[in-house]
Design goal:
CATH class of the domain at 100-209: Mainly Beta
Bound molecules: dinuclear copper ion
Radius of gyration: 27 Å
Oligomer: single chain
Strand content: 15-25%
Low-confidence stretches: none
Number of strands: 12
CATH superfamily of the domain at 100-209: Cupredoxins -  blue copper proteins
Length: 309
């Protein structure tokens, strides 16, 4: 990941925007240089000197006025045409059926793959080299989906789906963010876009489609029992169990994900236990309440969730 990802486009869509920004930047730099150069020249060349009277007074010059009307007009027309072309390349009309429906929630992202039916959260896998049509929705308030290397920004609006295309030239992992303020944990609404070789992507999709494995015994089995008895199931889904709710992230393959809490911590057993012990300590304001689980309950739940590869 680049420190300034917006300057490092990795898709035709992002490259089109980047190139427009470069061309516009050069035009603006030239205008700035000419204007400031003329101001400095005038200050030095034309300042009042001892013993000089007023210079010759000139009012109106048709040629000058025509030139300084025509040049900005040409610049505006050029920028208009370039922007028009960039919009066509960076933001073509959406596909009739989106490849992925991505929903912004306070404060995480849900991804539903239309064809396969895979449902996941905060870690969006895509096949490298293929443009994907993304439909963006919002579950609560305005959010904004942005992967600087891959595409433009797009707001997610409750009740009004928006569409963008994303694509990655080659396999790589990109950081995505919410770029519209949406409440307490707006800053921790990160996600990863994992672009993989097509075969690897298909393997990932197959693995995500499988229902959760049933633990054979021990802490993990007790954790599953606890999960199904408590209010975890009011918000989360784990395919293959009684949990089918869609309020919080789908946890069917929770352990396959690199991050937890929409990027706030690495998905390690220690961080998961801290999260389960009191989510508010890890991510203040998160919609998951503190259930005041005992230490052994936290151990059991974490043992179970860690099996969800
Ligand atoms: Cu969602 Cu900011």
């Amino acid at each position: 990941m680049n420190a300034l990802p917006v300057l490092d486009p990795q898709s035709p869509q992002a490259r089109a925007i980047f190139h427009l920004a470069i061309v516009a930047g050069i035009i603006f730099a030239v205008i700035f240089a000419i204007v400031s150069g003329m101001v400095v020249y005038a200050l030095m060349r034309c300042r009042w000197r001892e013993g000089e009277g007023d210079p010759k007074q000139i009012a109106g010059n048709k040629t000058v006025e025509l030139v300084w009307t025509a040049i900005p007009f040409l610049i505006v027309v050029t920028l208009f045409v370039l922007t028009w072309k960039t919009m066509g390349a960076a933001d073509p009309p959406p596909a009739p059926e989106p490849d992925i429906v991505i929903t912004g929630h306070q404060w995480w992202w849900e991804a539903r793959y239309s064809k396969s039916g895979v449902v996941t959260a905060n870690e969006i896998h895509i096949p490298a080299g293929t443009p994907l049509s993304i439909r963006l929705e919002a579950a609560d308030v305005l959010h904004e989906f942005w992967v600087p290397e891959l595409s433009r920004k797009m707001t997610t609006v409750p009740g009004q789906p928006n569409n963008i295309w994303i694509q990655s030239d080659h396999p790589a992992t990109y950081l995505g963010v919410c770029s519209e303020f949406c409440g307490t944990q707006h800053a921790w609404m990160h996600f990863l876009v994992v672009a993989e070789a097509p075969a690897q992507f298909q393997a990932w999709e197959q693995a995500q489609l499988a229902p959760a494995k049933m633990p054979a015994g021990g802490n993990a089995a007790q954790g599953l029992a606890l999960f199904q008895q408590t209010s975890c199931i009011n918000c989360h889904a784990i395919k293959g169990t009684v949990a089918t709710a869609g309020v919080g992230p789908d946890l069917t393959h929770f352990a396959s994900r690199k991050k937890l809490g929409a990027g706030i911590a690495d998905n390690t057993p220690e961080n998961l236990q801290r999260w389960l012990a009191d989510p508010q300590q890890v991510k203040r304001g998160v919609k998951m309440p503190d259930y005041k689980f005992t230490e052994s309950q936290v151990t059991q739940l974490s043992a179970y969730l860690e099996t969800l590869q």
